[in-house]
Amino acid sequence: MLPISVGLGSDTALAAIPARFALERGQWDEAAQLRVRNSEFPTARSISYFARALGAARSGNAAAARAEIAHLDEIEAQLAAAKDDYWAGQTRIQKQAAIAWVMFSEGQRDEAIAAMRKAADLDDASEKTVAMENKLVPIRELLGELYLAAGMDKEALVEFQASDKVMPNRFRTIAAAAAATRATGSVEAAKRYYRALTALAADADGNRSEISEARAYLSKN
Amino acid sequence: MKVRISALAVATAAMIASARAQQAAHDQFGTVHFPISCTAVQEKFDRAVALLHNFFYPETVRAFQALIAEDPSCAMSYWGLAMSELPNPLVPPFPPANLNAGLEAIQQGKSATTRTPREAEYLAAIEVFYRDYDKVDHKTRAEHYEQAMQQLHEHYPDDPEAAIFYALALNGAVDFDDKNYTKQLKAAAILNEEAKKQPDHPGIAHCLIHSYDFAPLAAMCVSTAELYGMIAPAAPHALHMPSHIYSMLACGTIRSAPISHRKPPRKPTASARSSTKLTFSSTPICNGRRTAAPKSLSTRCCPFPSD
């Protein structure tokens, strides 16, 4: 019987799996409540604290989000002290993105966008490592989502298109791109995204609201 | 970022054909032959190295320990043990106990009597990684090991294992700020060349996935990802590795991902074969060009519409 954890790669996976499950479904309350699995690797705990921070901020609990960000601060300092520059940088990106959503929840729209853009640029400049099968979330997609939440649909679409070039075929990206184009009144473009979304989920067995919306929109337009 | 599409597709086609033909004949960990001077344990050594190419820790440790017990004079078994003490050699940090055990294995290997100059160089190369592990940081040691493996590869250009382990060492010393992916593509070039000669080698397919395990490169590796699980279906890591490529592209994944986490059948079934074929045929369409006419799977492969 193999031990469950044999190192960093196992611990990041065990932290990332529940975090992805909550974040990909936009279940912010669930993300905010994620258990922080005990790990000797600060990087693995960073994943959980980031998901909790984002979940809290996006479900309107700025105070709780700030407490999670304080954990990210500690982890970043710990990694930097250990001269683990790569993982310190990854935590810095997570922290920056979480702070942006806290700012947005507190009504500082422009500051939030600037902070989120900085996080996305940092993320684009960094590479994934083998210790993660993939990056946890595309940070540029979060910038698109922030624009979308701010009602800046055209700006949102630019970011979704840019994110898709790096991390293609994501359900969240395409669903959000559909919502952004729909909000701008570009019916044909919205239909193309919705068709892409239904094709992507052709074999899906769940009942996602995005798919219901896509089908409803396509039948009316 | 300049990345040229390599001749991988051709090499991979050959690998797929051969993997199908030989699936029943070879071991469930892939086919490896690493000739050593301890001829009495050659066959067991090959199998242990196959485990090593599949990162099958801690089975690797046990396999090389058993070899040492059988013939304590065989230097290369200590090399294997030292290599095995890195559970996943590409994911540091390593527990000090493992690093210490690796260094001890090397010391014992250096006094083992059955060895050739080539085998002594293998031991000396991995010693570069372990030496002063408590004083020198991982990155520096990984780079020194890469250089030592480059020399070994240059001294023995006809030794495929030297080439493959050099490619792995390149992956272990990757510079994540290098958006030209210099070391990754250097490794991939070596491996693609070897793949033509050893299509069932688990280390080649495995290390190719690591070499292409970056967003701009991943599309070049969809078929190899599918193939690796077929080459080494008994190795848990071989069943896991395709998800690196699949999750990055959400491409060729809808049908294949669940398969990659199940143990594939001993002989590929008709559905497994057609799945490979589908994935393979989708590759050219996924190479970042979204203008190709969509066909079945490819509509799921690249659905993001451009305006």
Short synopsis of the structure:
The complex is a heterodimer of chains A (221) and B (307). Chain A is mainly alpha-helical.
Task: Describe it.
The complex is a heterodimer of chains A (221) and B (307). Chain A folds into two domains: 1-137, Serine Threonine Protein Phosphatase 5, Tetratricopeptide repeat (Alpha Horseshoe), CATH 1.25.40; 155-221. In chain A, helix 7 (139-149) runs antiparallel to helix 8 (153-166). Helix content of chain A is 73%, strand content 0%. The longest helix of chain A is centred in the middle third of the chain and has 21 residues, at 85-105. With 221 residues, chain A is mainly α. In chain B, helix 3 (59-70) runs antiparallel to helix 4 (75-84), helix 6 runs antiparallel to helix 7 and helix 11 packs antiparallel against helix 15 (270-286). Chain B has two domains: 1-31 and 180-290, no CATH class; 32-131, Alpha Horseshoe (Serine Threonine Protein Phosphatase 5, Tetratricopeptide repeat). Chain B is built from 16 helices and no strands. Chain B is globular, with a radius of gyration of 20 Å. Chain B is mainly α. The chains are: A mainly alpha (221), B mainly alpha (307). Chain A binds chain B through residues 2, 6-9, 83, 86, 126-131, 133-134, 161, 164, 166-170, 173-174, 177, 189, 192-193, 195-197, 199-200, 202-203, and chain B through 57-58, 87-88, 90-95, 137, 171, 176-177, 179, 210, 213-216, 236, 243-244, 247-251, 254, 299-307.
Strand and helix layout:
The complex is a heterodimer of chains A (221) and B (307).
Chain A: H1 8-24, H2 28-32, H3 42-58, H4 62-81, H5 85-105, H6 109-125, H7 139-149, H8 153-166, H9 171-183, H10 187-200, H11 209-220
Helix pairs in contact in A: 1-3, 3-4, 3-5, 4-5, 5-6, 5-7, 6-7, 7-8, 7-9, 8-9, 9-10, 10-11
Chain B: H1 8-22, H2 42-53, H3 59-70, H4 75-84, H5 96-111, H6 117-130, H7 138-155, H8 160-172, H9 182-197, H10 202-211, H11 222-231, H12 236-240, H13 242-249, H14 253-260, H15 270-286, H16 297-301
Helix pairs in contact in B: 1-9, 1-11, 1-15, 2-3, 2-4, 3-4, 4-5, 4-6, 5-6, 6-7, 7-8, 8-9, 8-10, 9-10, 10-11, 11-13, 11-15, 13-14, 14-15
